[in-house]
Specification:
alpha/beta, six-stranded mixed β-sheet
Length: about 300
């Protein structure tokens, strides 16, 4: 990929971030009064001064000195900007402070869900995460909620935000092909993300945003109750397993995820978006999916797949 195309993508992502944040124009911190700005000195007078030919040219009589900002008339003075005050938590449509109280509230609300449908409804009315203000849709899940295999990613992207479903863009299409390679499709898997709202500009979710959303994905996993849990990328594995290892050390190893009621066999593998950037790593992901297929074959057929 050439540098020009890369720069264009970066600019588009930045503009997308500004638009998602509600920015529709660029302004200076202070207004500029064009009527009181002095005329620029001529090139000849400036050169004469720089060569030692005397003092710099004086401003015309009655005009303000070029280096002195004239006092603005009383009617044009801007009032001081008020202090930034965050709205109170719970105000519908307003930003909130992601503090410990908000995280505790998320835990309490997530535990009240007795089904995946109730959990989705609770998330739809949850106003504790500011990402909901810039996202178009809640991206809850896709696939078969009764399947024995569940995938968990980090956060939705642009295409997912538009359609309201996880992994429907280019990375999702690659995930579908990876499932087909081991004889599965989305009717045999349940797919979700740790963070159900798209961060503006596809940025990485902050630790506070992840902590706010984590109780809901934990409850989602417990309610789906899969037999095999696969983390797509290191971010979801680190968040839900509480580990700090990178994906190269995590991937391919069978571990256990504790829901509080049972322990689920789990594995981390490369995120499909990473594989699109690093296609040579697909061989390792292929090994992981073969291991997943073998593990599924060992399971008793007590659950729909």
């Amino acid at each position: 990929m050439d540098q020009q195309a890369l720069s264009r993508r970066e600019v588009e992502a930045l503009l997308d971030f500004y638009m998602a944040s509600g920015v529709d124009g660029f302004l200076e911190e202070e207004a500029v009064d064009r009527f009181v700005m002095p005329a620029a000195p001529s090139a000849s007078s400036s050169l004469a001064f720089l060569s030692g030919g005397g003092a710099p040219p004086a401003a015309p009589t009655g005009a303000p000195h070029p280096q002195t900002r004239p006092a603005q008339p009383a009617e044009r003075r801007q009032p001081p900007s008020p202090a930034l005050v965050m709205p109170a938590a719970g105000a519908q449509g307003n930003a909130v402070i992601p503090d410990q109280a908000a995280i505790s509230s998320a835990r309490e609300r997530a535990l009240t869900a007795a089904s995946l449908e109730e959990l989705q409804q609770i998330l739809g009315t949850f106003d504790g995460c500011n990402l909901r203000l810039t996202a178009k849709n809640l991206v809850f899940a896709d696939g078969n909620p009764t399947a024995s295999l569940m995938f968990v990613g980090e956060a939705p992207g642009r295409d997912e935000d538009i359609h309201g479903k996880p992994f429907v863009g280019r990375s999702g299409q690659l995930l579908d092909r990876m499932l087909m390679a081991i004889g599965l499709d989305r009717t045999n898997a349940y797919i979700a993300n740790v963070v159900p709202w798209r961060p503006p500009g596809n940025r990485t979710p902050t630790p506070q945003e992840t902590e706010l959303c984590k109780p809901f994905i934990q409850r989602q996993i417990a309610l789906a109750n899969p037999d095999i849990l696969v983390f797509l990328g290191a971010a979801s594995a680190k968040s839900l397993l509480g580990v700090q290892d990178g994906i190269r050390r995590l991937r391919g190893r069978w571990m256990e995820y504790d829901t509080g009621g049972r322990k689920i066999a789990c594995m981390a593998t490369y995120h499909p978006a990473y594989l699109l950037r690093s296609p040579l790593e697909k061989r390792l992901s292929w090994r992981d999916f073969l291991s997943i297929k073998a593990r599924m074959a060992e399971l008793s057929p007590g659950k729909s797949s």
